[in-house]
Amino acid sequence: MKVKKTSATIATPTPDAEEVRRQIAKKAYERYLDRGQLDGYDLDDWLEAEQLVLAELGEEAGEMD
Questions:
Q1: How far is residue 57 from each of residues 1, 5, 8, 16, measured CA to CA in Å?
Q2: Which of 2, 27, 29, 64 could form a disulfide with 49 if both were Cys (CB 3.0 to 4.6 A apart)?
Q3: What radius of gyration do the chain's Cα atoms show?
């Protein structure tokens, strides 16, 4: 009996939606602290944090190519 050899690829786990949301919230809070804890910029902080996190995830995915 011959055994066929196959190359196995190890998949890197991708964060689920809840983990991505946590990362965005953490970065948004960091932006709030960096700004001196000024209120009224929560949406701006969230949107900027979202862009940063998604860009980082895209770069990580690109490293695998």
A1: 44, 33, 24, 11
A2: 27
A3: 19
- 């910029």: which residue's tokens? 41
Query: What is the tens place of the pLDDT at every residue in 7-18?
Result: 555 555 667 999
What would the pLDDT profile of 22-51 be if each residue is shown by its tens digit? 999 999 999 999 999 999 999 999 999 999
Give 40: exposed, middle or buried? Use CB within 10 Å, 0-12, 13-18, 19+: exposed
The answer to whether residues 24 and 53 touch, using CB atoms and an 8 Å cutoff, is yes
* Domain positions in the chain: 17-63
